Amino acid sequence: MHPCDCGAAAGPLGLCADYYNAILAEEQRDPEMYRWHAVVVCVYLLQHPSRGLQKFLDSQYRMLQFFVEQDLDALIRLQAHQVARNSHRSRSGYDLRPLEPYAPLPAGGPPERFRASFCGLPYGDDGFVSDGHEAYGHRMRTLAEMTEEAWKNLGPGTPGGG
Q1: Name one Pfam family in it (predicted).
Q2: Is pLDDT of 143 > 50?
């Protein structure tokens, strides 16, 4: 099978899209796994930007940096804040101020390769958490860190998401 858009070789489940879709399906049955949903989406779209919308990549990159610097609980609080502000009753829209301190998406991307990809995730009889949720969380953090590293290695970003 040909390498994935992100440069990774296919794994036992196929390309990264196959892993991503399997993770999304498994998250629906596992609330603890679902806590990592925003990280999964940001990593996947930053590693495969042709699958998302260019106008959102900068905020996804900043959100990924927020997560790497802070932690999952801080990201979940940020998401809850955004959802509350974006409700039909509030009408105040997203609050991007918490993401302003983070570097904009570097120009010249996407990176050709990432040191970790979805195709490298282990998958067992119990899915992606066959060795436990803590191990799954460590793998998601590694994916996030390696994605951030690859983009940062491209150089500085441009305000507004290059």
Answers
A1: DUF5946
A2: yes
d(Cα 112, Cα 131) in Å, to the nearest integer? 30
H or E element at residue 113: none
Give the domain ranges of the chain: 16-152
Handedness of CA 74, 153, 115, 12 (dihedral sign): positive
Higher pLDDT, 145 or 91: 145
**pLDDT of 159 over the 90 cut:** no
Which helix (H) or strand (E) segment holds residue 42: the answer is helix 37-47
Tens digit of pLDDT for each residue in 14-48?
999 999 999 999 999 999 999 999 999 999 999 99
Distance CA 11, CA 150 (A): 21
Provide φ and ψ at 5, rounded to 5°: -50, -35
Read off the amino acid at residue 12. P
* Short-list 4, 13, 20, CA closest to 143: 20
User: How far is 113 from 91, CA to CA, in rounded Å?
Assistant: 40
Compute the residue count for the chain: 162
**C-alpha 125 chain-centroid distance:** 24
